[in-house]
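user: can you give me the structure for this one chain? tokens are fine.
assistant: on it. calling the predictor now.
[tool input]
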Amino acid sequence: MPGQPVSGPRTVLVGAGRAGGAFHLALGDAGWPVELVGHDDLGSVTGGPDGPELVLLCVPDGAVAEVAAQLPPDDARVVAHCAGSLGLDALAGHPRVGSVHPLVSLPDARSGAARLRGAWFAVAGDPVVAAVAEALEGRVVTVGDDRRAVYHAAAVVASNHLVALFGQVERLAAAAGVPAEAYVALAGGSLDNAARLGAAAALTGPVARGDWDTVRRHLAAVDPSEHEAYLAVAGLAARLAGRELPPLRGG
């Protein structure tokens, strides 16, 4: 449940997609005066003392610089973006800039709004962007432009790559005649162990034990189209365990 409403700066969110819709609902529930506009409706974003104090660009990373360039510079407002991979240079020309990127997946506006509350936020620039995280009861990390791409790469691995790996789980489970749902608790428990103990201490399984015969049986059993992905992640597991992968072949 949202906390007690608090007042915030007048805010315009640009971009009516999942991120914009999620921020609109979440900040509105937090008591902020917010307006949501499409990226093609910037004419409604007025400047001066009657305009918004914060314009937050919730558009795809590749569109941030283009959309920001359509807004005239204004000392009375902050122009910020929520793109994970971009630094503040994408907002060049504006006197007050910032970025606030939530470390959550936003599949739709309503569930995204719920996930924003209490999330981790990477912030940079004007202090008003930290106020966004504070209004949503979030936790803040400061990430400078020189580390932004590495920060976002970690986010992609933590979210998108895990989903892609679960796609492989779905395929292998189907080949075994087992519903993928049966593996969800196993995956969740392993991630919880990693969060509590650190990845190296949480690692279990044949690679952690150096049980290469089991790995070879896996490769012999699964479709060859799955070998490359399996071996790539097995290599990561071996690195984590301080081991070296021997020659492995399905057969």
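assistant: here you go. The chain has two domains: 11-143, 150-241. The longest helix spans residues 148-176.
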